[in-house]
Hints:
The chain is mainly alpha-helical. Helix content is 75%, strand content 0%.
Amino acid sequence: MLQKLRDRFFPSRVATRPALRRFVSGEASYLAQRATYEFSRNTLAWHGQHILGDAKFNEAFAICRWESFAAIAADMTFLVRAHLAAGPRLDPLLLSVYADVLGEYPNPAHRPQGWSDCHAALLARFNATSDSRTPEVKVIGYKTGVLIYGKAPVNANNVKEESAVLGAAMTFGLISFNDRLPQRLDTAALVQDLTKHST
């Protein structure tokens, strides 16, 4: 029990590819679940108790959560890349980590062919951005917020305001993630481990 408490409050630093996968997956899953649930619950207001039990709603909600998870995991992998500042030589390995994050689970029902479009989109982001350039987290967060809004199972037809709400939630979550990277990642060890897998 003491070990579990220690791991919760003093997690070990991320120094290997598998540890990076677990870290990004856990962080992305938490943010996607929290943001999509809170947005849907707040939008539904007092109708929520009834609608949250509806099978069709939950089918659409599951799609929203999956797509949010994939988008947020891509954002987080992008932020890890910037933090490592190791140059494009690690891009294939970081793309593999992202693929491992999405491949950890069976393909969801709405994506029987998998996530190849998401892999290609992240590769395009890598190719378009220098690893030494500081990521504009607010821009990233709001762009992902708009994507999530487009997949949301419910909205109040106020596109500008509701997209801004989700954008702010994404920005806050990604800033928190980015700010914790220096403490959570053992940068030298992680770069060495990733480089080892590239040879």
